[in-house]
Amino acid sequence: MLEQARSVLDRTYKLIFAYHFAADEATKAQLGERLWKELEAAGNFPDWNNTRHLLDTAELSHAFAVAYDWMYPYWSPERRVFLQTALLQKALRPAAALYSSGTAGTFLEDGTNRTLVTNAGFGLGSLAVQGDVTDSATVQYVLDNAVSRLSAGAGQLAPDGGFAEGLAYFVYGVGYLATFMAALRSVTGGYRGLDSIVGLSDSGLMPIHLTSPSGDTSFNFGDAGEQSSRYRSPELHALGAIFNRPLYDWYSEYDTPAEAEIVDTKALLWYQPEAVTVNPVSGTLPLDRSFLNGQVVSMRQSWEQPLAAWVAVKAGTPASSHGDADSGHFVFSARGQQWALDLGIENYDLPGMGSATAETVNRFFYYRKKAEGHNTLVFNPRPGPDQVAKSATKYTTSIFTPEEGIAIADLSSAQSVVTKWLRGFRLFDQRRQLLVEDEVSSGSVFEVWWLMHTKAVITIAADGKSATLSRGDQKLLARIVGDAGQFVDLPAEPMPSMSNPDGQTTNDDVRRLAIQYSGRSEYRIAVQLTPVRTGMTNAAAVVPRPLQEWSSNLPSGAPARATSVSVNSKKLASFRSDTYSYELEVAIGGGLPKLAATGASVTVVQPTSVPGTGRVTAKESGRSTTDYVFNFTRGSHAISGVKQISSDSGHDVSNTIDATNASAFERNRADAWLQYDIGGQKTIGSVSVDWFPSESSQYGDPATIRSTVFEILVSPDELSWSKVYSGKSTSSTRSSEENYAFTAVVGRFVRLLMRSTEINSIVTTKHKVRDVRIFDRAVPMAVTPDYGALSFSAAAGSKTIAVGETTTIAVSVESRAPSAKMVTEYSTSDPTVAKVSSSGEVLGIARGEATIGVIRRSPERRCTWSRVAVTVADSSVHIVPVAGDAHVDRGNPTTNYQTSTSLAVKYRKNDPARNREAYLRFDLAAVSGNIIGARLRFVGGTLDAEPTAVVTAHAITGEWDPSTVTWSTKPAIGPALGSTTLDADLNVQRVIDVSTHFTQQAGMLEASFALTEDNPPGGLGMAVFIKSKENVTAPVLELDVEPSKESRLSAAVDTYVEEVAGSGRDRSGETTLRVNTATASRGALEAYLRFALPPDLQLETIATATLFVSARRSAAGGQSVVAVSSSENFTQGGIDWNRRPAIIAEIARGGVVYEERWIRADVTSQLKSAVESGTGAVCVAVTKVSVEGGEVSLRSNEADADVRPFISISRQA
Fold this sequence. Notes:
The protein is an alpha+beta fold. Helices cover 16% and strands 36% of the residues.
């Protein structure tokens, strides 16, 4: 319901604003009635979901509060009462009940964003109707409790404004708090102490520091959105007003062009242009900041330079609210590009995403939430979580100087493989470069991977020691400067040895730069990241030093500084003595720029080319030397005008010249064109088009693959046009800007003519362009490799092998696979189950399942892989699924719960009406051999976080039927067999050893167990819920079986015959054999089974022989009695009622109930007689003995293998 509630709130704000700004009364009335229609529908909801998801209730409380107050004059008295009643009955009274109960629950007081949203939402509702309703006590009670809980619940902001849940939930939670505080001030004139919440006044610094220098990306850790997102928050305007922090207004105003097009009603409400009096530079905001809550550190090169370097790093606790396994994770931007990114949110609807500790599947099984899906280290890759969920890691050292930023974290507790893991980040070389260094050690050898996710094209050097990352025309050099290793280019998907649950978001547009180390117990891993400037020699590789030495030899005091710099004798207005790098564009046709500088003893190195680099070095006795770098590039032609094929479309063509990919031009028209004027006759050598990119599959939505057929034309006068280029854009999801070069021509006007656009192979006229640039020369752009050509498939010769057996993995390559030699390697997810050789031969080691990884690497060190699941079977272990289950409830003593999806267990000494017990039955007839060990496995937990519960298994000694059992008819149970402790995680598999039951019993056809809480502390047992037979994770009985000398005979022929007029017909071949006495409406039904004897069966080797037939009654309640008798021999298809075999003698009788059970009969004498006489078969008949009871169904030899009839022969020497 949350989506509907947010929709109501959004429409409420927009309709109200439109109403108040409407020019005429008719429009106002139309908007007011549209708003009423929205509110009337929501007000008539049966409830606002307060018992299930309190956020929904709070959001609707917010919507109704604003609508009631801001539209008060418009509403009639009747409508006001309607709105008051809805707020009271569906929000405020349910909130008051929660506040007064003492069990307000996680939403109202767990200290997360939910605490802020729910209490603020209810506070807004109470403020709106205060003084207007007769139930003033409830309104005041809710308001007082909302304020007090907000004061206590905003504790995660302390001490410095950090918010561990990340920017997405900062905007949500703190935004609600700011909205409520603004309302409090409006209504009461004050904040009732909320403005004293520790850290709240500084909280607006977090989104500022965690936004990149280019302003279009952010550190979106946790459950924040896509990697390219930037979190704007209009509520920062309100915080700025509350705390007199004009910097918050600057940030909220500092929108990208695309954001500027978004109409945000709160921004309109709170924005005051006169309040924007400072920016980070004029406000002397430090370049760096650490946030204790969430353990986040941000360090940057400059506030003013959009191409400056910036790194943000993370530690903390994965199992915190909306947390990831991201200790050691970082993002890095430079030269206007994000080189190391965070993948962001995963689909909330995936199984286990809401749990941090479930063993079957939880949040940390999913790639985007695991360490493997972040820019950190991964140790000994195996299935399941790859960091300790409840670990608490932190940054132990943060040193910020004008020349450098240093952050060092102790991450040792984040995993269990190594005893020491320190990770350091150093923004050095006047903050131009980044060094990432890890010190890891253990008492034994281990494997470790260094990982960095990027949208850049990765080109690895032949020796593997360096890699160049390219995005558009920008580059980053990565070098391994620590322990020797080699880079590889990996897909952004789970490694073959890691968990890979279904339904995950794909990351097709992302790759991973990676290094693998193995075979040692200690490593110093260091990677140097250097932004590449055209025409500038790359800085030398650094020699890594121990992290403990990083703080030594740092310069003390202020460095030497230049005071001014001029270019071509003109003072550089953007120069600041504490900003060390500058990106300057030289006009096309301009000559070499000339630098000059003043200040401390300065030397100047002039650029020798464009593009190229100049340098100013400032030196002064007793101070550290400062290098100022000036990177000169030759830009594109200035565009003085742009127009399209017709001016009536309403699409903004200026979006294509705003130098950002955050906005776009879109047109649905055949042969649409965009035309650009460069202001005069100039040389034109290429055109770069930033097409709207293809989109990967996201959250279950299919991918969108786009490509456009286009032409480029040039004209000197808009009259005569020359086609200089024609082609088709690529369909990459990775880099959408493409440069199209051609023989240089002279002209003034350039036209981009779009013929057609293919979307998922469908030809359309839906064209979409983000940006266009025009050059006098060709501009090399990164070209995305054909990663698809590396794809392949792999399969095992046998999917299931026995222990000790082998199978071989076969590989089939893509038809366009590169001809160069590929290296193929193999891995196993569990070497204790299956091992794999270098040639792909798999050997079964022990019972279980293993994933065999097949990894193929190209000469360019680009990797791709496939997974092959192999099952290793072990005949000594049997898994028996539960055949029937139910629980009984003393409070409802005559109710049967067989079909419930959960089995309930509980014991309360002083409240026996709440007592419950669960029962499980397992069929054992299919188990061949002697049971020497047994374990009962089930999935479940308590409904209460504390304390835990102990569940005990007992053998059931009395008769019971899952379809009829109730508390009143519950069976007798025996002594305790074993027990297990359950916590609040309902998705964890629990195990109870019940082996003693089978040492006391032998030859059982079935086993039944009761699950109870026996004598909990104080007689106060917890509510336990166990997943029943109706679930995929139903209970099972795991048996260790010792091979016996038993052999089994399956029925060679079985059928049943029906007494009808005439002879009837043969029923062999059906999966069910029917048995019944004659009734008033139909004749009798009889079943016959024939078991052929093996030719090597000798009389003297037969000890015993037992017939097993699975049977069930057609109706619940009571039982039917059947007789098993010997009969004459018969053959397939040879009998009907008139030709049925004669029944010789009754062997045994058995009762059949509604639940399917095995009946058995001793046929030892019949088997021996058949062997001795040489008839070659044992034949039996099954008939109904009495009229009482319903029809009986027997499983035939055509049924599923585990329920087919058989004769078990126990042999003697």
